[in-house]
Amino acid sequence: MKTYIVFLLLVTFALVTYVVVLPQLDSFKVWPSRNYGTISTSLGSPFLGSSSAPITIIEFGNYRCQECKKWFQETKPLIGKNYIDTGKINMIFIDMEPPNKSALLASEATYCANEQEKYWDYHNILFSRQIENEADAILLKKFASDIGLDRKLFDECLDSGKYEKKIKYNTHEAMKNGVKHLPTFIIINSVGKYEKIYGLQPFSVFEEKIGLMQ
Prior knowledge:
By secondary structure, this protein is of the alpha+beta class. Helices cover 52% and strands 14% of the residues. Helix 4 (101-114) runs parallel beside helix 6.
């Protein structure tokens, strides 16, 4: 009888561990964070590439920055092919507040897309499409449809303005740490060593700086 009771207790303990404890442990999973001053990789976008890559590129920019767009078109594809796709590097984008409200809305829209795990799809469409006028809410919502987002959820998020403070805070932290020109890049490794790149630079400059970090 005692053996049977002990067996039941062990089974109960195992079930409680599986159902209650393990999911809680998983929810506390810590993703790697790298810091430059008070700037953390937790501030901006989700990682592009493997979260465990040994080097991170932090890009500071916004969706009205023409040099940012040109870098996206000319240099980023080479970084993606040679470093991100191979697991050597990951990347995040930290928004700098643009000078007008409607352009700020584009940055907010990327975080609404992130709620449906399509941050980078939305980021890419903003830099790929030619936006002659201000990025108003109607256009931003159309982009959401173009990449297959749930429009009801996206529209509610964008209309709420819930991410405006996040972008303002990111801008404040970036400026506090000396980011004044867009785009600016900080390349940082797992031990905190870093290199800075200012402005629109070719792939060769990134290749050289990345080599110093390895």
